[in-house]
Structures are given as structure tokens and as C-alpha cells.
Design brief:
110 residues, alpha+beta
Length: 110
């Protein structure tokens, strides 16, 4: 009986651990390779993710942060904004995050 419970507990921990790992490669601080003023922070938000994109405003150049909910699905991070969904993918060749229109490089945590 004890062996069975131990095996069940180990299996449950393994499944739980794997579930938390999905999408973890997207979490971090990212900087646009074209503009160092355009940064993105991706963090866990319960079972989903929150993308915080900070860009300078056009005229004042003061930074503005916008928050977007995201989910991990089929190997990409799907970000929703105004009814539109954008897929974020990490390029395996260089490790950059691609949004379709922009490319970001991960910056190590300080």
C-alpha cells in the first residue's frame, strides 16, 4: 500500500512539475533588437501569462506600458489584444523572441 501511494505521489508531482514548465521559456525581460527603448516583460499570471510592453510615446518619448494577457498553446505564446491574437515564438537558431513584426533579445536578470 505504501509503495502504491509513493508511486502515485511521485507521478502527481511529475505531472504538476511538467505543467508549470510549459511556456516557461518565454518568461523574462526582452529588449527589441531594433530599438533599446522598446522592452517587454513576460511573467506568469496564475496558469496563464501577462505581457507588459513598454514603448516610448511618439511625441513625448515618455515610456508607456501596456499589459496583455497571454496563454501558452501549441508551443507558442498567444497574446490577445482587442480581439486579435498574435503568436510569439522563440527562434531556436538565435534564441530571439519573434512577434511577427518585431524581434526581441532576452536580457539576463540583474
Amino acid at each position: 500500500m505504501m509503495k502504491w501511494m509513493g508511486a502515485a505521489l511521485a507521478a502527481a508531482m511529475l505531472v504538476t512539475g511538467c505543467a508549470k514548465v510549459e511556456g516557461e521559456k518565454f518568461v523574462g525581460h526582452w529588449v527589441n533588437v531594433q530599438s533599446q527603448d522598446d522592452v517587454m516583460d513576460i511573467e506568469r499570471n496564475g496558469e496563464s501569462f501577462m505581457v507588459r510592453n513598454t514603448t516610448p510615446r511618439f511625441f513625448s518619448r515618455k515610456p508607456k506600458t501596456e499589459n496583455y494577457p497571454a496563454i501558452y498553446k501549441d508551443g507558442v505564446l498567444q497574446v490577445s489584444n482587442d480581439g486579435e491574437t498574435v503568436n510569439f515564438a522563440i527562434d531556436q537558431a538565435n534564441g530571439h523572441l519573434n512577434t511577427g513584426s518585431d524581434e526581441y533579445q532576452r536580457v539576463p536578470a540583474k
